[in-house]
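User: Run a structure prediction on this.
Assistant: Running it now.
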Amino acid sequence: MVGDNGWLDCADADESYTFWKKHLLTFYDRTDLGWPELGATVKHSEDHAEFFAFVMKDVLIVGQGLPGKGKGDKNHAWNNWDAYLTANVDWTRKAFAENNFKAVVVCGNSSLQHSKRYFTMLERIAKQYSDVPILFLGDEHDFQEEFEFRGLPNMHRIALDDVVTP
């Protein structure tokens, strides 16, 4: 997933996004890394290539475009934050609706601070799928772990720090 530190915080956000798409967007197709085949079909949003979803061993993996807002007043495609959050919401709903799974991992870089509306929607989905364990994996620059995120027994949230300390 794409994050603000390697995208929106860069001097040229469009250039950094182009590099991300070239080198990381289809990581699962790269043969130069020596990784085994993913063994799953990855779907991407037509409007936002950074949104992805796939099912592996009954686990739905949903990749979001939830970077922080970025630094400064940059003229980039995501200046309309509300529309971008709505697109994330729509992608998550679609991934849940179109796949069969027993558990879910949602990957998104953003902090709770900038994406409150997204997390309110994720809470609604978790209530709908109350028998499905859902893990939100994000980044806050310090390790955080919340069992029963937002008071929901099936939601767990983990935010990694700068060195990915478990």
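The longest strand covers residues 134-141.
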